[in-house]
Amino acid sequence: MKHCIIVGGVAGGATAAAQLRRINPEIRITIYEKGRDISFGNCGLPYNIGGEVSDRDKLVAATPESMAERDITVMTHHEVTRVDSGTKKVTVKDINGNDTFEEDYDYLILSPGGAPKTLSALLDVPQAFVLHNLEDLDGIKSHIDRHDVDKVVVIGAGYIGLELIENFVRRGMHVTFIHRSDEVYRPLEDDMGDFFIEEMERQGVDVRLNTEIVEVDGNVATLDNGEEIDAPMIVAGIGILPRTEFLQGSGIELNDDGFICTGETGRTSAESVYALGDAIETFYQHTGGKTTVALAWGAHRMAYVIASQISGNGDVVFEGLLGTNIMRFFGYDIATLGLGQHEVTGYDHFIVDHRQRNKAGYMDGSVPIRVRIYVSKADGKILRAAVVGTEGVDKRIDILAAHIRLGGTAADLANIEVAYSPPYSSPKSVLNMLGYKTIEKMKKLDE
Q1: Under a CB-based contact definition with an 8 Å cutoff, are residues 153 and 260 in contact?
Q2: What per-residue string of b and e applies to 247-263 under the rule 16 or more CB within 10 Å gives b?
Q3: Rounded to whole angstroms, how far apart are CA atoms 115 and 443?
């Protein structure tokens, strides 16, 4: 019987195991997970803090016991410390027992994920946390309860940082936000995100920009500008790094930043070794350019591709992704897709920007929505899009993602037929207007 070893669980490894078992009932499957939990909804972690996910256990997607019912062996607190792709062996450390052993594989799926970054000033600080898994969530909530904490310092202005700010406020805590620059939420253009700081201050958040913590003494944190702030709890959300150190000398190619190089089949540079999740380098569907995207859709799709490939169906391939994403910040919705701001500068392009009401302007309750697209001068492709508003953002970003996936250009947006009724849209939707504006701009380019 063929043996497939999977390194890591959650959205990548656990989903790959489930898909592989569904497609191939004969293969032996073993998952080694260094943490306590095998599969959970990590995107929902902040919302349990804020109370929108009222039952913490609802975040648990699978357990070793539920996996065993599918004839999948799960070994938690077991860390793969070395891979030898030449002999097809992995070295595994039992973290609890401190024993080490080797295991043979026929197929290997790597889903090691990312390790949360932190600051040197927060090392060994008992009230400093990250929020990356269920263990972190349990630690944060336990600290709040045991010490009756009503104040928290949040560091970082990405997904996790902003979601934590919102949910700590919803929990009724006083929040201090610290960020080392004045650029909040880098995935979004600065001139489209001027509401972030305004909304924080409206919600009572103490905002400290262009500074960072350099020392923590007891419950007092010192900033690099000399200020001291009350810090009975600190949570850092400043990004992740790929957990791929154990692959050094494995024969598996990594890019310069340590991400695992993969292609359309999910296979790495080593025979019978596949990879998915936050630790891989993948590619954009619409440009073919390389990228790294720590989002759930790509991991779930690649899980199916890899399971199909291992099971002998070479026709199923990964067609790339657009990095389509959305987040909520109090009353605002923010969505982007496509190339990052730093990447789009490498293409000859023009920008089309349009503001409109989310539905018929004469309707009470209509609110502004803004969409910006970056259009390739060469072929009219939409390279990047950003949408901001308080209603209807998800609808517009999803339409754009489907439109690009099916080969539609920016000018083609004029032909999209939306469902119109005054409570939902305008006869010419915001996306239609982007199409008309694109046509006019392209006419001028041809003159």
Answers
A1: no
A2: beebebebeeebbbbbe
A3: 49
CA distance 204 to 137: 24
Residues found in the chain: 447
Tell me how far apart the alpha carbons of residues 396 and 335 are, in angstroms, rounded to a whole number: 9
CB half-sphere exposure, 212, CA atoms < 13 A: 16
Per-residue pLDDT tens for 275-327?
Answer: 999 999 999 999 999 999 999 999 999 999 999 999 999 999 999 999 999 99
Structure tokens, 248 = 């050094």
Over the stretch 107-162, which tens digit does the pLDDT of each residue have? 999 999 999 998 999 999 999 999 999 999 999 999 999 999 999 999 999 999 99
Angle value at C-alpha 445, between 443 and 447, nearest 5 degrees = 70
> What is the spatial distance between Cα 127 and Cα 125, in angstroms, rounded to a whole number?
6
Q: How far is CA 306 from CA 40, 298, 406, 428, in A?
A: 21, 12, 23, 42
- What amino acid positions are annotated as catalytic residues? 43
Cα–Cα distances (Å) from 240 to 233, 266, 407, in that order, read 21, 21, 33
Partners of 222 in the β-ladder: 215, 228
Rounded Cα–Cα distance for residues 68 and 430 (Å): 50
Q: How far is the C-alpha of 325 from the C-alpha of 340, rounded, in Å? A: 12
Closest by alpha carbon to 91, among 100, 6, 250? 100
**Helices vs. strands in the chain: H and E counts, helices first:** 10, 28
The predicted structure's pLDDT at residue 98: 81
Quote the crossing angle between the two packed helices 393-405 and 430-446, to the nearest 10°.
50
**Which strand ranges, in their side-by-side order, compose the sheet holding 220-223?**
213-217, 220-223, 228-230
Cα–Cα distance for residue pair 404/196, rounded to 1 Å: 29
Q: Give which of 271, 318, 326 is closest to 298, Cα–Cα.
A: 318
Residue 97 burial class via C-beta count within 10 angstroms: exposed 0-12, middle 13-18, buried 19 and up: exposed
Residue (of 244, 245, 277, 241) closest to 130 by Cα position = 241
In the sheet that holds 382-389, the strands lie side by side as 325-329, 332-338, 382-389, 368-376, 349-357
Any bridge partners for residue 133, and if so which?
A: none
Phi and psi at 232, nearest 5°, equal -70, -15
* Element at 162 (helix H, strand E): helix 159-170
Strands 234-236 and 151-155: parallel
